[in-house]
From TrEMBL:
Pfam families: Epimerase (PF01370). The lineage of its organism: Eukaryota, Viridiplantae, Streptophyta, Embryophyta, Tracheophyta. This is UDP-glucuronate 4-epimerase. Its EC number is 5.1.3.6. It comes from Populus trichocarpa. GO terms for molecular function: racemase and epimerase activity; UDP-glucuronate 4-epimerase activity. Keywords: Isomerase, Membrane, NAD, Transmembrane, Transmembrane helix.
């Protein structure tokens, strides 16, 4: 082949590769609409942001922890960050503010945290460069990892987002943690959904968890296996918390108690699922303040990671706990309580549970968490929903004035 022809072919090859590359970027950005690439390094280069991150991460008490809270603009993340800061720990949040549910609620939670001196870095846990820079800036002693694609039923619509955040994101975070010196101790949110189709109640940590009924559950189960690996190879201290249907003020609009409230107030129809042959569907609903106490208990009892720079120096702690209320309530009863609190009659239909990944019941055995974390839930569904409804009516009141915790 003569030289001009070769140059011509090289040019065509270059154009073809560029098209493939751009096509791949387009493909991934369409498939992961919730994971806007977090090119947020400006946070760490601009001295004003740097100041805010340093200030937020600085403990206010002498023995305070320095905690990175992922998913801090989320429901549980906001409450845990508030409690940690209130007791004097340094807290830096990280959240990608994705659009899975109303972003304005995440921004309102961010405002609230700002008023309590907690700064949230906007970025994705898959962004290893950003994570590394953050860790270099603040020597985190602990990571409270709550960022995830939550929700059981949404996995039918957007499976990729679960793999991206709950598997890819978790690995990305652990990869950065393992290289730190000293490594932080990690506490992260698993889920009651790992018990899947188990029939034995109450669910106990020693029960099998290998029959998940949703992709969400499968990614949380994968997270537990991944935690085992990083603990085993790299000496990371890791504690997984299996939360059971958490509810309360500042909650998640995709959850039944939240959208039942919204739809009941609008007079819209709600569907209450039932199992085959009229089987009552129930959940071990757990109030947010109880969950927060469980998270703090897990952080306080976490021992140090043993590795440094990716190399394990000795065995490290690996734990899993149920955080539930140990008192399951039928979904129909949840609706009755809401009717009384909202003073409206629900326009409800009882319908067979669709094949959407939901399980029929959950019920936590919490003896282990009680013994080892001092976990002791104190809020029943009626009292917890009362607080949720008060917040809801205030937050969504027509004047638009935002509530406080
Ligand atoms: N709320 C519950 O009932 C419940 C029950 C069991 C387990 N969990 C788990 O607890 C954790 C917190 O749940 P929640 O109810 O607060 O959910 P949430 O959706 O309100 O909070 C999760 C936050 O993580 C952020 N996020 C998601 N993917 C991210 C990514 N790739 N990078 C950075 N940020 C990301 C989201 O923007 C969101 O603000 C999750 O891991 C969830 O799976 C929750
Ligand atoms: O405990 C957990 O691990 C899980 O708890 C909740 O999942 P879930 O218990 O399914 O909570 P909701 O989505 O709020 O559903 C509560 C109940 O209402 C029922 N439901 C839901 C929607 C609906 O339209 N009708 C209805 O009866 C569901 O079947 C379920 O029994 C969270 O959404 C998950 O992120 C979390 O992982």
């Amino acid at each position: 082949m003569d030289k001009p022809l070769r140059t011509h072919f090289s040019l065509i090859k270059l154009i073809a590769w560029t098209c493939i590359f751009l096509g791949l970027i387009l493909f991934f950005s369409l498939h992961y609409p919730h994971s806007s690439p977090s090119n947020r390094l400006k946070y760490l280069e601009d001295s004003d942001w740097k100041y805010q991150i340093l200030n937020s991460g600085r403990p206010k008490s002498r023995n305070g922890f320095r905690v990175l809270v992922t998913g801090a603009a989320g429901f549980v993340g906001m409450h845990v960050s508030t409690a940690l800061r209130q007791r004097g720990d340094g807290v830096v949040g990280l959240d990608n503010f994705n659009g899975y549910y109303e972003k304005s609620l995440k921004r309102a939670r961010e405002d609230l945290l700002k008023s309590k001196d907690v700064f949230i870095v906007e970025g994705d846990i898959n962004d290893g460069v950003l994570l590394t820079k953050l860790f270099k800036l603040v020597k985190f002693t602990h990571v409270m990892h709550l960022a995830a694609q939550a929700g059981v039923r949404y996995a039918m619509k957007n499976p990729g987002s679960y793999v991206h955040s709950n598997i890819g994101g978790f690995v990305s975070l652990l990869e950065v943690c393992k290289l730190m010196n000293p490594q932080p101790a990690i506490v992260w949110a698993s889920s009651s959904s790992v018990y899947g189709l188990n029939k034995k109640v109450p669910f106990s940590e020693i029960d099998r968890t290998d029959n998940p009924s949703s992709l969400y559950a499968a990614t949380k189960k994968a997270g537990e296996a991944i935690a085992h690996t990083y603990n085993h190879i790299h000496g990371l201290s890791i504690t997984g918390l299996r939360f059971f249907t958490v509810y309360g003020p500042w909650g998640r609009p995709d959850m039944a108690y939240f959208f039942f409230t919204r739809d009941m107030l609008k007079g819209k129809q709600i569907s209450v699922f039932e199992g085959l042959n009229g089987f009552t569907v129930s959940r071990d609903f757990t109030y947010i303040d109880d969950i927060v106490k469980g998270c703090l208990g897990a952080l306080d009892t976490a021992t140090k990671s043993t590795g440094s720079g990716g190399v394990k120096k000795g065995p490290a702690q690996l734990r899993v706990y149920n955080l539930g209320n140990t008192s399951p309530v039928p979904v129909s009863k949840l609706v009755n309580i809401l009717e009384k609190l909202l003073k409206v009659k629900a326009n409800k239909v009882v319908s067979p549970m669709p094949a959407n990944g939901d399980v029929l019941f959950t019920h936590a055995n919490i003896s282990l968490a009680r013994r080892e974390l001092g976990y002791k839930p104190t809020t029943d569904l009626q009292s917890g929903l009362k607080k949720f409804v008060a917040w809801y009516l205030d937050y969504y009141k027509p004047s638009g004035k935002k509530s406080s915790v």
